[in-house]
Specification:
- The structure is a homodimer.
- The first copy, chain A, is mostly beta strands.
- The first copy, chain A, folds into two domains: about 10-180, Sandwich (Immunoglobulin-like); about 305-495, Immunoglobulin-like, CATH 2.60.40.420.
- In chain A, about 5% of the residues lie in helices and about 35% in strands.
- Chain A is globular.
- The interface between A and B is large, with 53 and 53 residues.
Chain lengths: ~500, ~500
């Protein structure tokens, strides 16, 4: 029913361009979120739009700018939040836009002021983070240019932005009820044109040239394209599904050299994307991504290591995803308020496990497929170095394991390495501590592991989860809380629900 | 796309039955609201269910009982409330279940305790009252028997309950966006069987015999049927649309005498319901409804008269419904809290008009079709007698006027009369002050008026609106506030949104 692609951003820069710089400032936006009719594939459907448009408006800003988005919820019965994917929200954890975690959802008719600083340049996006409102269409591009007086470590002449996302004919409510999920991988082959990858998730990388790229849900890249081909022709760009056998055809668009007519069809057929299960191709791409010289380096040692086993499980026969055998079910009181004010009944106070049974065989389906829900939190002291080992495993069905792109809020992390099978102490020796890339999203490959490192330098409560929205919906995530006692100034509106809503309400009558 | 019938209840009593009485008590229910798959017409769709069933569970209680419904919102992104249609909520106006009026919507994951007294026996129903959640399937039957030691003024042997509602294939979100509405009238002809109407909206009426009844959205009736026909046959019951040209066939069901097989099809064809626009038939039925002797009588005189002109209008080209040229748009802070605590910025403080221009021609389309939105309130002092004249008019299109069933919360009203054309001072002389029926819902006929009287004896804020859900959605309603300063004990949770949510939040930080 659906076609093409989760919320991803590919930012294409055409060489080489001299920037004009304005001055650092506060940008004020007024946005209304409401359903609109939209027919991207000639079949009319309802989609969540912003100011009457879908996808939402592109935000363009400079590093160091403050933004204020006055977001008015014009939905009739649904709350809403917006997550600013890739923005670390230093000092403003309540503006991270995660319902149940950083704030109460904005009620219908209410307006919330998302006010925060764009801490660094990059190609980002924003999207809903409540239920499956991202799948309902709530997203758009967010592009932060370098600050005044700074330059990028590459040059280009022009730029354009591709925001890739899935589109379904079935409503999100159908999807929620059915817990159905969609394949969500992307690959492009701009025929004859090479792409030079220069930025990933808002961090510069060592430039490397490819003919196609693997992009996963939650990721963003900037690539340079030299427009050195015959200008009288147009060129196919193919977009195909990765990681799960596709039931939809490749998507196609055209690279057009002005003033050539954009309706001129190329003579040659569109490029065929790599087969969906060519994981070696995918891994080869991931391993090419290395930090640009001069990028921040990771601490040499970690203070704590959390190993997270990703398994598909059952609860009362319903399919779920679990992390160390706990399927995340978010509480009605957002953690930021309940932890700050020590409301101990708001969530499970027991810390979730930091490892899994040593005899678990990641190459086989779970021996006991049953799991339980939970909403415990990993409490992390400030200014410690945390390693997370994401461990993939076989799903319920034998001989199947899928790719999952994990996204961390409030942070970038270093990707120290990828490996096959079960992570062992020996694997640590192969960690790349020299030039690991900083990312906010990283995949685990089938039956493999991925090692990440980050420093707990940002007081707040941060989600860490698989970015495939139905997988998060089915429990595939964890929550990190760090230094919440240092958070001050949470807006009342962000607390006006759940236990914080009822306990802190003081009227003359009560 | 859809078929059959708005939320209405027809309660059929089969003569004659000796009641067994229990004792007055508090009934405790635990309900979860969530979407479920349902296939009432063989096509699977999502519908809002309660405890996994659609329609929701039937509540059965006795007058004088207290009920506590612990309602947990298991929807993922939507708030929810439930209105107990026909229950006056004396002393518990926060339990009326009207979002933006009596309480904050219950957030996803939260539980609200609807605790109130069933003040009188009757055939009622309950339904969502937030956005178009009634159309989404949130409703069920609510039947209150007479109190212990009391008897009904009629006898019957057995009873069954028919809850009539519309069913659409299109989602509520599609409907909301499209502002589409559906015809919603009902009429039944239990062939060969006569029906004796004995109760309307929870008030006894003078029994009268009919072969079919007109039932409108928001209404409920009890009828007696004497099962005096040939028991070896089954009998068709036909249900047809009234008041708007139907695009769906009559719905059919069978009246079956046990132990005759229920699959035995009657020899004769099903009865044909009256034509959709046979308004004389409808008026004749309405005029037969008179209060049973001994029912409360209206005060002889009114203290205040509010005349409400019903017009179809435009705002920026969007079709709306307006009352005295104001299209109701509910505020994000529920009135009960904002009026109680004098939060003057929460809504328009200017009282809406109590009449319309004397030269307005109700027989013609509006000369100036444009209108504006508003959320002002009619402030009513306690213990006054208020007359409301509902004045129908021509719609935007010439020579068209439709039936609207108006429902009042927190009260029953006396229906003093129906008339044709524009209401004049002369019409007052024809008011029925002798035995007008008490109802909570009454219709206005095309191009006609309906006169209602009620006493402001119930402190609270009460919606008064057309019960066709899309019409309310498009602005067809007003709000009455009476003696709100006498309301005490509003639960904090009912205030935890909008201005009451943010102003009354006291945390250690703020």
């Amino acid at each position: 029913m659906g076609f093409l692609r989760e919320g991803l951003v590919l930012f294409i820069l055409l060489c080489s361009f001299e920037k004009s710089f304005g001055s650092r400032k506060t940008r004020h936006l007024k946005w209304d979120v409401e359903y609109v009719f939209w027919s991207p594939d000639c079949k009319e459907n309802v989609v969540m739009g912003i100011n009457g448009q879908f996808p939402g408006p592109t935000i363009r800003a400079k590093a160091g700018d403050t933004i204020s988005v006055l977001l008015t919820n014009k939905l009739h019965t649904e709350g809403v939040v917006i997550h600013w994917h890739g923005i670390r929200q230093v000092g403003t954890p309540w503006a991270d836009g995660t319902a149940s975690i950083s704030q109460c959802a904005i009620n219908p008719g209410e307006t919330f002021d998302y006010r925060f600083i764009f801490d660094k340049p990059g190609t980002y996006f924003y999207h809903g983070h409540f239920g499956m409102q991202r799948s309902a269409g709530l997203y758009g591009s967010l592009i932060v240019d370098v600050a005044d007086g700074e330059t990028e470590p590459f040059h280009y002449d022009a730029e354009f932005n591709m925001l890739l996302s899935d589109w379904w004919h079935q409503s999100v409510r159908h999807q929620e009820v059915g817990l159905s999920s969609k394949p969500f991988r992307w690959i492009g082959e701009p025929q004859g044109h090479k792409m030079v990858v220069v930025e990933a998730d808002g961090n510069y990388v060592q430039p490397f040239q490819v003919e196609d790229i693997d992009i996963y849900s939650g990721e963003s890249y900037s690539v340079l394209i030299r427009t050195n081909q015959e200008a009288s022709k147009n060129y196919w760009i193919s977009i195909g599904v990765r990681g799960r056998r596709p039931q939809t055809p490749q998507a196609l668009t055209l690279l057009n050299y002005a003033p050539t007519s954009a309706s001129k069809i190329p003579f040659s057929p569109p490029p065929i994307t790599p087969t969906w299960n060519d994981y070696d191709h995918s891994k080869s791409f991931s391993n090419k991504i290395l930090a640009l010289m001069g990028s921040p380096k990771p601490p040499r040692n970690h203070d704590r290591r959390i190993i997270l086993l990703n398994t598909q499980n059952l609860i009362d026969g319903f399919t779920k995803w679990s992390i160390n055998n706990i399927s995340l079910h978010l509480p009605s009181t957002p953690y930021l308020g309940s932890i700050k004010y020590s409301l101990k009944t708001a969530f499970d106070n027991k810390s979730p496990p930091e490892n899994f049974a040593s005899d678990y065989d990641v190459m086989k389906p779970p021996v006991n497929p049953n799991t339980t829900t939970g909403n415990g939190v990993y409490m992390l002291p400030l200014n410690t170095t945390v390693d997370v080992i994401l461990q993939n495993a076989n799903m319920l069905q034998a001989n199947v394991s899928e790719i999952h792109p994990w996204h961390l809020h409030g942070h970038d992390f270093w990707v120290l390495g990828y490996g096959e099978g079960k992570f062992t102490k020996e694997d640590e020796k192969k960690f790349n501590l020299k030039n690991p890339p900083l990312r906010n999203t990283a995949v685990i490959f089938p039956f493999g592991w991925t090692a990440l490192r980050f420093v707990t330098d940002n007081p707040g409560v941060w989600a860490f989860h698989c970015h495939i929205e139905p997988h998060l919906h089915m429990g595939m995530g964890v929550v990190f809380a760090e230094g919440v006692q240092h958070v001050n100034g949470i807006p009342n509106q962000a607390l006006a629900c759940g236990l914080t809503g009822s306990r802190f309400m003081k009227t003359t009558q009560n």
